[in-house]
Amino acid sequence: MDRTKILVTGGAGYIGSHAVVELYNAGYQPIIVDNFSNSQESALVGIEQILGVKVPAHRIDCNDAEALRAVFAEEGKLRGVIHFAAYKAVGESMGKPLEYYQNNVGSLLTLLQVMREFGVEALVFSSSCTVYGVPDALPVTELTPTKKANSPYGATKQMCEDILRDVAAAPEASLRTILLRYFNPIGAHESALIGELPLGVPQNLIPYVTQTAAGIREQLTIHGDTYDTPDGTNIRDYVHVVDLAKAHVVAVERLLDAKGEKVDTFNVGTGRGNSVLEVVQAFERATGEKLNYKIGPPRPGDVPAIYADVTKSVQELGFSTSTSLEDSLASAWKWQQALMS
């Protein structure tokens, strides 16, 4: 049976690798593109061990139009693209805004140009809840106004969404796209063969938590405890990465079936918010490990609280998450232990 080919940019990354596994399990043939600037080739080994097959992978930068054209030509009929490839750390983007604009916006423009040349019409775009800025009310729905982004990273996601709407609205345009605005992905595949693999000091909470529990980091710093939240720490919507990966498969199916609008937007989260302190306590319950942590100053660019209203995703995509916070954190700890074995 010929499998429908879906290009996955950033397919060796944290979310991308899990999406590749779920695409293959759903009957698709994922094609990975990654420059490994923020991932490692060990992810390809993990994917192969999980699936029992080698997934085609091309080591290129999505800003390189000629290299991208070569992949499209070599792979033949691609039916769609999931675009993960982007820099993704809020804090880092505050110090490297130019790099974030060049990479995140530039790679999308290059990809859209090559997709048009090869007649590929379906795109699932990896967006983010950062597009909402600091919301006036919670939870946020897909109709919540986007406000000025709190970071260059968030601004790149807003720009990319605007670009996709404009391109799809052009009179002769054939592009169909789904913007998946996701919240905070955590956890790892149940096999502990793939998971979040930060290069250097982790920028995200959960790998810092697991590295602290493992003794790699001496202490976890919680960035601020004076926010306007019940315990003073930031509130986020933590969604298990496999649940998130499955949302991408559902989105691909919707695009290929030509359902919905030419540009459609969906929140992907659990619909619940948890504070950083609640996450620390849940990790300790799930693993039996005690965490050494301290309270530090707030981090520039951080939004006090945000979590999703997932009604639209449930009703129109037929998608909902199924993994609890404790189970997600337990899987992250299992992954950390596998890395050390």
Descriptive account of the structure:
The protein is of the alpha/beta class and 341 residues long. It has a domain at 4-187 and 239-269: 3-Layer(aba) Sandwich (Rossmann fold), CATH 3.40.50. The protein is built from 11 helices and 13 strands. A 7-stranded parallel sheet has the order 3-2-1-4-5-6-11, sandwiched between helices. Helix 6 (152-169) links the parallel strand 5 and strand 6. The longest helix is centred in the first third of the chain and has 22 residues, at 97-118. The protein is globular, with a radius of gyration of 19 Å. The mean pLDDT is 96. Its cofactor is NAD(+). Homodimer.
Blueprint (SSEs and pairs):
Layout: E1 4-9, H1 14-25, E2 28-34, H2 42-51, E3 57-59, H3 65-75, E4 78-83, H4 90-95, H5 97-118, E5 122-128, H6 152-169, E6 176-182, E7 184-186, H7 205-213, E8 220-223, E9 235-236, E10 238-240, H8 241-256, E11 263-268, E12 274-275, H9 276-287, E13 293-296, H10 311-317, H11 325-340
Parallel strand pairs: 1-2, 1-4, 2-3, 4-5, 5-6, 6-11, 7-10, 8-13
Antiparallel strand pairs: 9-12
Q: How much helicity do the residues have?
A: 40-55%
The rough form would be described as globular
Gap from first CA to last CA: 38 Å
Q: Order of SSEs, N→C?
A: EHEHEHEHHEHEEHEEEHEEHEHH
Average per-residue pLDDT, rounded, comes to 96
CATH-derived architecture of one domain? 3-Layer(aba) Sandwich
Amount of beta strand: 15-25%
Major sheet: order of its strands? 3-2-1-4-5-6-11
Structural class: alpha/beta
**CATH homologous superfamily annotation of one domain:** NAD(P)-binding Rossmann-like Domain
The CATH C-level class name of one domain = Alpha Beta
**Low-confidence residue ranges:** none
- How many strands, which pairing sense, and closed or not: the largest β-sheet? 7 strands, parallel
Separate helix tally = 11
